[in-house]
Structure formats: C-alpha cells, structure tokens
Hints:
By secondary structure, the chain is of the alpha/beta class. It contains ten helices and ten strands.
Amino acid sequence: MARIVAGVATSHIPAVGAAWDNKKTAEPYWQPVFQGFEPSKEWIAKVKPDVCIVVYNDHMSAFSLEIVPTFAIGCAAEFPIADEGWGPRKVPAVKGHPELASHIVASTVLDEFDITIVNKMEVDHGLTVPLTLMFGQPEEWPCPVIPIAVNVVVYPVPTGHRCYMLGKAIREAVESFDQDLRIVIFGTGGMSHQLQGPRAGLINREFDTRFLDNLTRDPAANVRIPHLEYLREAGSEGIEMVMWLIMRGALDDDVRERYRFYHVPASNTALGHIILENARV
C-alpha cells in the first residue's frame, strides 16, 4: 500500500523565490535562509519520495473572489506555473499524480469532507517556493506533486480542527491506495506575519516556537488555537499555519522531529521550517 512517511512544514514567502530566481542566495541578507535548508535538501534526497502532497494556499492565481473553495485538490497530470504579475517563475511545470489525487478525492468525500476537484490549475509561489527550498532547481521536479489548496484568504477559513481531521482523512485515503508509494506531505505558509496596517511586520517568536514545539509534543494544543488567537498573536496572515495541521494530521500520533529551522526576518516575516518523521517508519 501507499504510505506517508514524513511531513515537511515551511513558509512559502514569495521574496524567497525571487531571491533564488535572481541569484541572490549568497547575499548577506539571504544566505542564512538558504543555508538553513541545506540539511533539508540532503534529507529529502535520501528519502526519495515517490509523490509529494503539497498543502498551500492560492494567492488569487488559480482562483478569484468569484470562486473560493475551502479545500481543493489538483487532479490534473500537469500544473503550469502562474504569472503573478512579473512573469511565471522559471521553474519546471509541476507534474501531478491523477490516479492518487482522484483516489484521495473519492475517499475524503466519502469521509464527509467536501472537496473541490480541480482538473485545470496554475500553481503560484505558495507551492513552488517550498519545492525550490527542498529540491533546488532541477530540470524537472524529482517526483509528482498533488496540490491541495486551502482557503486562508477569504473569511470564513477552516478551523485548525477541521484541517487536522482532513489530514487524518488524507492518511486513510493514501493507505487504501493499491500502489507501493512513499509519500511526503507538505504544510506551507506562515509563520507569524502581517503584511498591512499598523501592525505590518509583526513577528512573534514566542508564539511560533510554541507552535513548532507542539507539532511534535502536543498537536492537540495547536488544534485548539482559535482564529482570533492567530490574528492577535501571529498577525493577519498567521492563520496560514492551520495548513501545517493538515500535514500533522496526516502523520502518525507518534513522530520524531528530524530537523527544525527558524529565521527572522525574511521579507518582514518569520520563516519557519520543520521535518517530522513517523516513528514507525
């Protein structure tokens, strides 16, 4: 059967992608960021996942205010790179895994999650920046990717509990798929940051550190965080961290923390990253 062996959580800051694309990775401001992902690149090269499931939020590239799905799964064979206003990033198109994606849709819908099926979708920095951080910039991505887009932009957004339970439903779906696949699931976005208003530039290291600690030690504590607390403690965009709970829900209860990296500031935000492995693998 297929199985999820590990989870990766990381910020998906667009300026990080721009720094990579414009060959600024060695500049003093950006060098610590990219250096912090060198152990992660070595780790994933050894794991060699057959498929990556990447949970991210679309930034009005594939969707718009006309259609805002709460949870959407890309079921296409390929996902082009979105033009976010300055041309598409010069990274490989993302190859999908339609068979597994469709199976996850069927299983999660029967598990009473209302999932939007997307057969044509461009992907933006929310998905491509994490791939760059983990894989660099190969001629093509080393494995198929299943995008799962979550609405964390337009109210109402899903609760942490709903996201965590979706992760569990995804794990059940994967484990009922009849191919022998090793899968790594990504949760992206965050950590604390606010992009507008009087609190623009807000960073809360204490909140971020506690959230990272609890991903391993006490995920239920993170699941209980209400929307208002994310807004108050982590800024208006801190709600993106609920997507990390989908990743955590898709793992076993018993996990080990393989690697952690935290850096501030990165384009006025807190950059967080953690790798969790299922203890049974």
